[in-house]
Amino acid sequence: MKRRIETAVIVTLLAVPLALALLGPLVPFAGGERARPFDPEAPWPGTDHLGASVLDGVLDGGRGIVLTAVAATALAYAAGFPVGLAAASTRRRWLDELLMRPFDLLLALPSLLLVLILASIAPPTAWTLVLVTASVNLPDIARITRAAALDAAHRPAVEAMWLQGEHPWRIATVHTARSILPTVAADAGVRLVGACYLVAAASFFGVAGPEANDWAVMVDANRGGIFLSPWGVVLPAALLVALSVGLNLLFDRLLSRRDTP
Amino acid sequence: MIAYAARRAGLGAIQVAAVAALAFALVELLPGDAAVALAGDRPDPAVIERIRERMSLDEPAPARLADWIGGLATGDLGTSLVSGRPVSAIIADALQPTLILAGVTLVLLLPMSIGLGVAAARRRGRWPDRLITTTSVGLYAVPEFALAVLLVSVFAIGLDWLPPTAVGAGSLLDEPLVLVLPVLVLLARPICSIARLVRAGMIEALDAEYTAHARRAGVPERTVVWAHALPNALAPAAAQIARTADWLLGGVIVVESVFVVPGLGTALVDAVNARDLPVVQGIAVVFGVTTVLVNLAADLVAFRLAPRLEVAS
What we know:
Chain B: Pfam families: BPD_transp_1, BPD_transp_1_N. By secondary structure, chain A is mainly α. Helix content of chain A is about 75%, strand content about 0%. Chain A has two domains: about 1-30 and about 45-60 and about 225-260; about 65-210, MetI-like fold (Orthogonal Bundle), CATH 1.10.3720.10. The longest helix of chain A has about 35 residues, at about 170-205. Chain B has helices at about 1-30, 35-40, 45-55, 60-75, 85-120, 125-140, 145-160, 175-205, 210-215, 220-260, 265-275, 275-305, 305-310.
């Protein structure tokens, strides 16, 4: 019974922001003529800092956050997984150290600081946001892949393959990579939640440039009018909170189900 | 202990050097001519010339690296490209509000998260535990700025109980009401992660043989929980407490921006937006070195609490 309530909460929390993010841009919304910025008399939910309807921004603003987070997570895996796998599979200790040590240094820095610093020298575009988020997530992914692969790469089966003269590259890709896939897939949810958080925070600080109009940018742009037209801030912020809480509860549930079958 | 501390401090020193080198490398990573890139949308020759002179970009990179490291050692971090003030003066001005925010948060964070974690572990499986666990899982990754504006619209605008920003407040300590919402936002994420770890550690410790033995020997339950089980449960949490220093610094940047607190985070965001690279470099070094030192301290505390963990790894 309690589990059912939890499921209902998770589904509701996720359904609204995800539906808006995926279907919102498809809704033909006649924005109508522009009214005054932050017009308190405009029909609910009021107008934004440019005088357009807040509803319009809410419908269009979800896709950017979700797509950027997914793209950044995928990119981080594409780079981090091979590095972690190579570091675990190699029999040369110096190569392992060379691949992994730089990540220890990156992990010593606050991630939002890293995002802001990288943004200070990169041009502000949507791709910058993807690249910066991916590079901040990279060290964690490489470390987790390496930790999982270390175990798999030193099993008796692998030793036997070595003795048979199987090519190390083939052992790593065919045997090791396959056997750690479940562990890494379980971790992917956590990474996606982290990417969502970073994308939203970075977007709030304008890393994606002046063209972007996602929910985080809306919160930032409409902050000045929060007393006149609070919905322009409250709606996108609430959607972001629902999205991250829902994703977190969902992945936590999947993980705990995996641990206790 | 001393051997471990020396080894760990050596790693910390390398990390500090790497932070300084990374901050220096920012200039080298700029595409093309750094002075032109920093001048941005208004490539006025006079502006470019001034930037080049202030950052001595005409000198070769090794000479500038030597200058930068020598400057770090003496506290000279260069001058701002925008205001022309020394970076160290800008940092010194912005330090106090940030220290107050971080200090108040840390003072509240440890007792609250440890209390919640212990409470949940002692009532395992019953409703207080379910409530604490679900809430802490849910709030774990909520972006601070979204939480902050929601709290502002409810408590500052809807109910009118608290001030919405720190604008007009002299010192943060003189007007404690100004601090309530920022500190709440800063606490949200770290409390969740530490409470979860303390709960997990406490459950393990309360099930261990030595607690059962202490109970059989007639040690009062309160002593068992707080003096025997808790130190063991805290060792794994100590590392996470250090990681939350990461979140706390990141959170400080967001919270200062939302609540208009004139601290280091606001200075950093302003400098990033204005492409004021010397200020960005200076603040990056301050934040990076702080994180390295906090991690170092936490590892030493964790080692002191449970030396066998380090031996095992």
